[in-house]
Design goal:
By secondary structure, this protein is of the alpha/beta class. It is built from 25 helices and 28 strands. Among the domains are: 119 residues, Orthogonal Bundle (Helicase, Ruva Protein, domain 3); 59 residues, Arc Repressor Mutant, subunit A (Orthogonal Bundle), CATH 1.10.10; 166 residues, Glutamyl-trna Synthetase, Domain 2 (Glutamyl-tRNA Synthetase, domain 2), CATH 1.10.1160.10; 111 residues, Beta Barrel (Ribosomal Protein L25, Chain P). The longest helix is centred in the N-terminal third of the chain and has 16 residues. The C terminus is likely disordered. Keywords: Aminoacyl-tRNA synthetase, ATP-binding, Ligase, Nucleotide-binding, Protein biosynthesis.
Length: 784
């Protein structure tokens, strides 16, 4: 691809410091690094006697500085560049230490003595020093080295060497270590060992089935499902508590370190996160990612996570949403350290708002809501009103002297998207679920969120990408009030195709009788998925699989279904259920009376229990398992093709077909033979059946919408309500089940053999079981 003349010059410039062409071109793709590296090289040239000649070792360090440093110390780079050019910073260890040192106090003038001490500037490590330390380390570990040979973890030796010689060049240290190990152990020839390992790793199918700890994508065959923290947590590379200042874009003030020390005294350096939902609706699949991220990251680091209700919008909050949110968090397997509310601190938030006014950082404004919409909001004519006037007006707002929309309190700051002076307080004459009628002014998210985070000493404020534009106001507000300032980290939100999760749109689906309620199994609210039979472990596994990406993720629901199958495959007992029964009478029934058979709940796993089923002269099979006009690959029952019955070892052959007035088969007369009898041809397929059945209702769910994005007007010009799949629910009211379902409770899960995975619905009564299809089987087992 052609690049501009300017970039051609930059390409040559980057190659002049030792970057190869590929790396130089890759660097050009990043606008910020490109300009920073260009400025770094030009600054370096002013520090060198021959400005056109930069050695590769210096060039590598200049590149490392440009790619590893943080925005908050870019203005201090000239000091590090000077040390690099004077070869006082000689390796990346020293450079990293110097960067960390400047981050602790990113202001001019720098403490040169402290910087040089932190980064080992002036410390000379000779080759003799390296040889001496390497020999000492090897001597101390000689016994284990001789026992284990090259299988001994060399990283342990290198880490010890680096500990003793902090400022030694890493490559020189490793080269010397390799040389000494060669002298002690000889060549590292692993070919023979690798052959043995490969042979040992080729297990027979029998050995594999006996293994009880094989992990496949987070699901073990010993029925353990790994958690979000198990699978993703180690990949999260966030700042350590107390090192907020090392985060890109973190804003510091002269009081930052005093506040940080006070924060660490209160928390003991513990990781503290929070999950802050609005209690105005039911949580959906996107919230599952947020729950797993916040609770999972805290759990991984032995930290704590608050459940904090963002109850700043009293008009839409209902008690059922408060209890429903906590219920779902616990269902997913997490226990909040503490349940809090934004409203717990309304008094403090109000006092801080007055302090903002006193500092001339907030004012009462009378612009209408329509005027404040969008990003190009004109400056308010009341922005510079006197402080005392704003204080009095804010007091008047609190005491109900203005109508809704007549006044707001706005903060004097600019958000990252350019929006000017976000609203901090607005007037709402509404009863609040927790504070009652005490307040008629309520704080906004932009004002409340960061301050509540500060109060609760949150270390990692994790939120979705759409809140990135609020990061600057988040830092500004904490710093404006001289409060401890957490770090806001953004991640991409999770979306699924073929659904809507907007509260407003779900309400419309309910109002239009498309779905019954928030827990209708066709929705992707978490209560709906639970009712449909999705295990919480599967949802957590799904969140772990997709990981924590910074970009927005829109996935096909099949990926979630696959996780559900994996979990249910090892947790759902098997039963036989016939959805559309066809009566079969065995004319030569081989027993004198009804038989009871013992069937394993899980194939091949006797230790996991069994259940008893009945077999008699009348059984019921799936209507679709019999065909009078079969295709070539049809392997089940036909007038000319026998078929086997699962679990009983019998083969049935059609003798006669009883029909109704529409000429449809309503009963088959068959004869049976034992599979083991001499002369009996092994059938092509085996089908499930039920005898002495338990009648039940089975609900089959399909996608609610016809198009992948029902909210996209290009796909669906008439709106999402016009895109409803009219066949999204099929009810089989006369399904027959074996006795394996007896005594099942609501939300108990089963695999209906050859059909799919199902869960007991809350509509179940003493008279009749109701099942929801959770997901189909991984493959269509009908084709056998």
């Amino acid at each position: 691809m052609a690049i501009s003349i300017d970039n051609e010059k930059r390409l040559a410039l980057f190659q002049s410091i030792g970057l190869n062409e590929q790396k130089a071109r890759e660097t050009l793709k990043n606008h910020d690094i490109t300009h920073l590296l260009e400025a770094t090289i030009n600054e370096a040239k002013t520090n060198l006697p021959n400005e056109n000649q930069i050695s590769k070792s210096i060039g590598n360090l200049l590149y490392a500085l440009s790619t590893k440093s943080k925005q908050q110390i870019h203005h201090l780079h000239k000091h590090l560049i000077k040390y690099i050019c004077e070869e006082k910073i000689k390796n990346e260890q020293q450079l990293t230490a110097a960067i960390d040192c400047l981050l602790t106090n990113p202001t001019e003038p720098i403490d040169q003595e402290a910087l040089e001490q932190c980064a080992g500037i002036g410390v000379i490590v000779t080759s003799d020093d390296i040889k001496r330390v390497v020999r000492e380390v090897i001597e101390q570990n000689k016994t284990k080295l001789l026992e284990q040979g090259h299988d001994y973890p060399i990283s342990t030796l290198l880490n010890e060497g680096r500990r003793r010689l902090k400022w030694a060049d890493g490559k020189s240290l490793k080269d010397e270590m390799d040389a000494e190990l060669l002298n002690l152990l000889g060549p590292n020839d692993r070919s023979s060992k690798n052959t043995t390992k490969k042979q040992n790793n080729v297990l027979s199918s029998t050995e594999k089935s006996k293994s009880s700890s094989t992990t496949i994508n987070g699901v073990e065959n010993n029925t353990k499902i790994h958690s979000f923290a198990d699978l993703v947590g180690e990949a999260l590379n966030f700042h350590k508590p107390g090192e907020n200042y090392k985060t890109e874009g973190y804003v510091m003030t002269p009081k930052t370190f005093d506040l940080m020390r006070e924060h660490l005294k209160k928390t003991g350096g513990q990781v503290i996160t929070r999950f802050p939902p609005e209690p105005n609706g039911i949580l959906h699949i996107g919230h599952a990612k947020a729950i797993n991220f916040n609770f999972g990251y805290a759990k991984l680091n032995n930290g704590i996570c608050y459940l904090r209700y963002d109850d700043t919008n009293p008009e839409k909050e209902e008690e059922k949403f408060f209890t429903g949110i906590l219920d779902i968090v616990k269902w997913l397997g997490y226990e909040p350290y503490k349940v809090t509310h934004a409203s717990d601190h309304f008094d403090q938030l109000y006092e801080w708002a007055k302090e903002l006014i006193r500092r001339d950082l907030a004012y009462v404004c009378h612009q209408k809501g329509e005027e404040l919409k969008g990003h190009n909001v004109p400056e308010s004519p009341w922005r510079y009103r006197p402080i005392q006037e704003s204080l009095q007006l804010f007091e008047d707002m609190k005491h109900g002297k203005f109508a809704e929309g007549e006044a707001t309190l706005r903060m004097k700051c600019v958000m990252e998207d350019g929006k000017l002076d976000p609203v901090a307080y607005r007037i709402k004459y509404a009863h609040h679920a927790k504070s009652g009628d005490k307040w008629c002014i309520y704080p906004t998210y932009d004002y409340t969120h960061c301050l509540n985070d500060s109060i609760e000493n949150i270390t990692h404020s994790l939120c979705t990408k759409e809140f990135q534009s609020r990061r600057s106001s988040y830092y500004w507000l904490c710093n404006a009030l001289d409060l401890y300032c957490p770090v806001q980290w953004e991640y991409g939100r999770l979306n699924l195709e073929y659904t809507v999760v907007s509260k407003r749109k779900i309400v419309k689906l309910i109002e239009n009788n498309v779905v019954r309620d928030w827990d209708d199994p066709r929705l992707y609210t978490l209560t709906a998925l639970r009712r449909r039979g999705f295990p919480p472990e599967a949802i957590n596994l799904f969140c772990a699989r997709i990981g924590v990406t910074m970009s927005q993720t829109t996935l096909h629901p099949d990926m979630l279904d696959a996780c559900v199958r994996e979990v249910l495959n090892i947790t759902a007992p098997r039963v036989m259920v016939v959805l559309e029964p066809l009566k079969v009478t065995i004319t030569n029934y081989p027993y004198e009376k009804m038989q009871e058979l013992t069937v394993l709940n899980y194939p091949g796993e006797e230790s996991r229990g069994f259940h008893t089923i009945k077999f008699d002269s009348i059984i019921y099979i799936e209507k679709s398992d019999f065909s009078e006009n079969p295709t070539k690959d049809f392997k089940r029952l036909t007038p000319n093709q026998p078929c086997g019955l699962k679990h009983i070892g019998l083969v049935i052959t059609v003798q006669d077909i009883i029909r109704d007035s529409n000429n449809e088969p309503i009963e088959l007369k068959v004869k049976c033979e034992k599979v083991t009898d001499e002369g009996v041809v092994k059938p092509k397929g085996f089908i499930h059946w039920v005898s002495h059945p338990n009648k039940c209702e089975v609900r089959i769910y399909e996608r609610l919408f016809l198009h992948s994005n029902p909210e996209d007007r290009k796909q669906v010009p008439d709106g999402f309500l016009s895109d409803i799949n009219l066949n999204s629910l099929t009810i089989n009211s006369n399904a027959f089940a074996d006795d394996g379902i007896k005594n099942a409770k609501v939300l108990d899960k089963f695999q209906f053999e050859r059909v799919g995975y199902f869960s007991v619905d809350s509509d179940t009564t003493n008279e009749k079981y109701v099942f929801n299809r959770t997901v189909t089987l991984k493959e269509d087992k009908r084709v056998l």
